[in-house]
Batch of 3 targets.
Target 1
Amino acid sequence: MKAEIPPGTLSLLLLRTVARIGPMHGYGIAQYVAQISNEVLQIEEGTLYPALQKMLVKGWLEGEWRITENGRRARYYGLTRTGRKQLALELKNFDRVSHAIQQVIQTA
Amino acid sequence: MFFRKLFAWRRRSRIHSEIDEEIQTHLAMKAADSSGDAEARRAFGNVGTIQEDSREAWTWPTLESWLQDIRHAFRGFRRAPAFTLITIATLALAIGANTAILTLADALLLRPLPFPDPDRLAMVFLDATQQGFPRGDIAPGHVTEMRRNVRAFSTAGLARADANITGDGDPVRFKSGLVTANFFDVVGMRPLRGRFFENGEDQPGRDGVVILTYEVWKSRYNLSPSIIGQDIRINETPTRVIGILPPGFQFYYHADLWMPLSMSPEKWANRHSFYMYAVGRLRDGVSWADCAAEMDSVSQYIFAQDSAEDRRQKLIAVPVREELTSKVRWGVFALTAGALCVLLIAAANVAGLLLSRAMSRSSELAVRAALGAGSWRLARQLFTENMVLALLGGLSGIVVAHFSLHFLKPLIPSSMTGYTELAIDGRVLAILIAASLLTGILCGVGPAWRMASTDPNLALRQGGARMSGSSGQAGARRWFILGEVALTVVLLIAAGLLFQTFTRLRGIDAGFRADHVLTMDTILSPKYQTLDRRTGFYNEVLERVAALPGVLSVAYSSTTPLNWRGGIMTIDIEGKPPQRQSAMYRHVTDDYFKTFGISQQSGRVFDSRDRMGSQPVAVINKTMAAQFWPGENPVGQRVRIMMVPDWLTIIGVVADVKEMGLDKAQKAILYVGYRQGGASFAAPAALAVRTYGDPVQLTGAIRREILAVNPEQPVSNVMALDDLVDSQLTDRRVQAQLFGAFAGAALLLACIGLYGVISYAVTTRTREFGIRLALGAEPLAVVGLVLAGGMRLVAAGVIIGVAIAFYATRWLGTMLFEIRATDPWTFALAPTAVLSVAVIACLVPAWRTTRIDPLESLRAD
């Protein structure tokens, strides 16, 4: 079953993915997230590309054009130093929030 | 991030193509993975939207869409040039008028006075309200008493005089201020160069010093620093320049240079010649109320020995700012109110125009809404258009204001011309732009709100014209018209009252015939200190000028009428207890009354019999006769000027000359023949020449004759007497004209608005009128129906306007002369004018109903 990506977590997902698999194109990133999450998290193209562009503008990612295994030109997104810092920050935040949410759920 | 975006702007086409390519690649990869291209694209969603959204990361979306709105706005204006032009012109006129008036108000009321802490400075006047003169000059003795007894402030005395500078260039006459040595301390000035007067420099013998204004230093001495310490010739006397004033300094009246007021102790004790002013700076901790209380007690003491009548007068201390602005304040307030009315009317009209434009565009807007533009987005578009219009109007308004300032110049009184000027400065500009934007917001909110709350579905189905009949819209416009008509009536009534004031003042009998007379001033130097020498000079000039071709008669006198409100002396009447009444004191030559056309009431006027040594005689005016000898014949009676031992025998009575000003109460005047004139302060200085033809043409010839008598004699204030009288009324004329212009503009705007509303009603109700006509209504009855609808609105506006005017015009109070603020004629005429113009504005569109073809109108959808 597909699920909505919780607001605010998209950039975390993208940064984490790039951090794990290295520079990758948009399609690859979306595929990877879908596979790892057992098709639960599906990143729509309509949110994927604007988000990637914003992260380029903010300097978290850098883009590089490469040729794919199938011979297509694609932009590969890699993590920058600021991107790495941002990832750490967002991870910490997410941990805190999800921990808090779990506490609430358990006590209830 | 900011810089990344900034640089991105330059390579945006590359960024765009990269995003496009990336998305194409994505599509291709997705297609390869799944069954087919179309499937991939469907799963992908709207490619265009994704591209747009991705690009947006690199942009300032709000800024760019505003810019886009502005571009749209201009495109829209080009499609509707008539609408755009009318709107901008309306706003430009209204905002321009307001800017100009605001600049005037700023110059007159708000600009700082050219000396420190002016709100602690007091001017002292003689308050003789019961005689009609609430702000009179004071006598040296009053200044002496105040310096001795008043604790509330330190007092400085000042008087005005003329100064002829000769020897270092063309002989020129300057105005000088004569002041006690503490004057600049009291006023609180510091010299720009050199020093100010020292203690004791206002004593005879040490008084040969002068302080120049910056303006004279610049114009006559080219800012040369070496002039300080040098002697210049003032009134033929070497006088040392000791200091320069900072630029722009003026105090109460215009002076080019400042000299010590040095007088003998006897003169300082004189309480019967009124030609001085006093200024004081309140001591720390003293309030204006304390000051007024002390002035009252000092006055009681000073006037204790005077007649019952005179004991009612007193010395008053008035804040200098109040004194400088009190004469102009109401005029400025009234003009500001008038300009604001015009702005309100203009704004109402523009709002009406914008509403109808929005209505006529509703199908266009509905199409855009259906194509996906959000209603908020469209409302913003409309709002932007209106703001752009308002700003364009405001900018054109600056141009209008710039060129209309010229007409406002006469409204700045001469006491303020030295330091204040009409210029649109940053503050006024800021207010102007804020006002334009506010106008834009107020006018634009209606259409924008309407857009935001319109259901595009409904709009599309109904089509433009039909849906715009919504009653709320038409209702708003009708309210606007009501308000416009009311304000127009108020402005028309105010303009009418001011115009009548002006014509009444023009029609006043000033006591002399102003046509064909040339006047000029020749202030004599101390070379002519003795009466003999003066008389010699006058006789020679009179003889030479009288011999010029075209000259009817020529005369010298202390002053040209209307020019000098001072020179008032206390008078004793023989055989009556000391009355201490006062009269203006004037020296004149024999042909004075003939030259000015002042009619003789009884007795005779001066002639060659009245010499030094013969019986001292005087001529008085009608008012003096009535005031001093009610019911008696004054001819043969004798009067004496205080401090002068000789009794003067009255030989004749002449008509009243309005020496105090056209709109002021008439004062008693005592004329003395120049050959017998002792007091040198009233020595004749004004030459008047009555001519056959245009008097101004004789200027050169007369000046040559004067220079032939004394080559060093400056001649100043050359003016036709007509122009002099006119200049007295310039401010009244300009006020009346401005209000006339406001009222005219208001009437025009209200009519345009009315025309618009009625045309609109005719267009939207065509079908209804068609049915009426088809059912047999008379075409004229339909015209009447429309006309009545419009005129009901106008009549309501007129009634409200008259009611407002009834209360508002009393604020014109001091601006009016010999006319009641509720003058019935004006209150009848203005509404009549509005009603008749409104009938035309309604009738033109109403007549169009006669061209309605019933069949056509019923068939058309």
Note: Residues 86 and 92 of chain A are 10 Å apart (CA to CA).
Target 2
Amino acid sequence: MPQPAPDRIHALELPLTSFSLLIPSASTAEVVNLPHLTAVPLGAPWLLGVMGWRTLAVPVISYELLMGARTHPAPSAASKAVIFFPLPGRKEWEFFGILAAAEPRPQTVVASLAIPVDAGELPDSPYVASGLRIEGKVLAIPDMAALRKAFYP
Amino acid sequence: MTDSGTYLRLEIAGANYLLPSTAGFTIEQRENLALNDSAAGNIAAWRPAKNGRWPAYGLGGDLRVDRRGAWQRAVFLDAAPHAVGIALNEAQLLPRLETSVARFTPMGPPPTRAGHLFSGAWLTDKGVVLVLEPKALIAYLQGLGE
């Protein structure tokens, strides 16, 4: 009897300045070089700005600032914008971007091999749902419901 | 997803914004306004009106109060109980075909009681120009007080 194929999820490791996020690949539309961001006056401090992407205006956020960091280092030449599909219940044009410190890496998460991480090893934030240890590295999984509440109160 | 309406381009302290032409507005030259000679306060000048005077606020490019910049004219938005305005460098009506505006939802809590300040974005080859939401802009200006 053939062995059943292990459950696996194609994901993206999104590097931030001090830790990395693990994102389902299916939730991302594209990874692009970071263009000039137009500031949004009187916007949330974690809203870095807005960029043009295809025919859309896409807001780009700093996950670190959203989590409460006081400052965010200026983007570097290696920085990328990871463009996400709209969150559930939002309009079809409401794509958004998260600033990555470097090029995201594909990760294939195999359910039987993924090791859940204790909460103590994760950033203490409502925007981190849980974490996995993959290849010895702790990757935080965003809480998308909390993100939706923060983005669209 | 795009709107090819008519827009007024506002240059405020070096930053550009679009105002939909559907918002009722009046443009006045600086020499027709009563300047605020006091360094105190948020108002750069007033436009005399039959029932009083309309304030024009001095703003920086980030739309926060800043009266240090030079300005040549003011745009006043129709509002109740009276018009409110912004002192600015330039106001230019853009041809319809030049502006194709994409919808845009700013994230986070809205900064005014009337919602977010911006409702669209004009994507140009030089970058993004945000489109002001008139009701929110009026609420913001009215909240600045004297």
Note: Chain B has one helix and 13 strands.
Target 3
Amino acid sequence: MEDLSKLYDAILVGNFKQAREVTEKALAEKVDPQTLVQKHMIPAMDEVGRRYEANEYFVPELLIAARAMKASLELIRPLLTARGDSFAGRVVIGTVKGDLHDIGKNLVAAMLEGAGFEVIDLGVDVSPEKFTSAIKERKANLVAMSALLTTTMSSMKNIIEAIKAAGLRNQVRVMIGGAPVTDKYAQEIGADGYSSNANGAVALARKLVAA
Amino acid sequence: MRFKLIACEVLYRELCFCVARSPHQIDIEFLPKGLHDIGCVGMLQRLQSAVDAVDASRYDVLLLGYGLCNNGIAGLRTRSIPIVVPRAHDCMTLFFGAKERYLAHFNANPGTYYLTTGWLERGEATGELHQLSISSQTGIDMTYEQMVEKYGEDNAKFLFEQLGDPTKHYRHMTFIEMGIEPDDSFRAAAERKAAEHHLDFRMVRGDMRLIEQLVNGEWDRRDFLLVQPGERVKVDYTENIIAAERADE
């Protein structure tokens, strides 16, 4: 029987090869995929988040942990989908029109994926039209957008307006982030939430889809 | 009148040029460009200390050579001397001479990394400011060799792809020529830098108008904010960019 604590450890230290190997063996031994996710992988990502908050981990550690998680999830996901298990939520993510800075966005996307969300990453410089059509076509229930500059922050407002105009505002919750963004700005433009960091973004996403 | 000018060193040459020709007597204090990288809380603290240290009895007005700079001036207060601040998102507005002209260029040329003399010769933060910078604090400024040592070669390759080049999505590197450069050495340096980053090199003519108006005391309310004693700067999410409010609010 495969020692599943090795999966937890592999994610914690960002060893994606070990994460994949342990997952392969566990699945071959007919371990329930949902058990792997809920009992080992998500707890590992939660511990990664805790260490980040405690300044024990930094951005690189988050990225490699999420990469290991993803390596394992790629093996598990088809099994979950085949038996009809759903994701924590389906999120459309991107940096807003005019903004090309994607380190934070990539980090949030990876962390959300690690937390069991289905992530549709639209990349950088995403127009309001691209956001609305992705929400519509992929039936997303969450939108996450970021901006690094105060010059491009105003695009967030335009995107929320476009979502409203497309009649999709009741279908999705909207969360925003990026260096110049604040709680106050989120309120001002009618977003549902703001997070100052990737770990907080996961907690916020869970809260928003549960509400 | 006598002005005190506290400014970012990225405007060094432009401000010195205009101060020399100003009808007013101006004392300049330049602060390091690295403030822009340490986050808005740290930047505000440093800027506030500089403002608080100004002897209000010696000056009529305090001028700020800053934009909103990623909210780095949001919350800046003044106790006893009026402050004049340009309405600008960042220094690019000052180099373009008007916030409207900067915004038009920014929107029409997506993916542009701008350079000026200050951005070329006063580029990188060093020492304590570098340690405090967001990129250093979050661990995203590591070299490839440091990543290999800490996370192994395979993870290092992945991390370097993600974090290694902050300009990877940029398309152009544009030198803003202000007309005060000594020769074409800065333009040539900008062109070399664009080639290093595999970006398309461009030039645009800057405009000294806003910088001149700041130091000449021509403060049109559409382009400049006046912060009275007892007030502080706040963010304004309109085209005004910044506003003043009572500091006790």
Note: The first helix of chain A runs from residue 5 to 13.
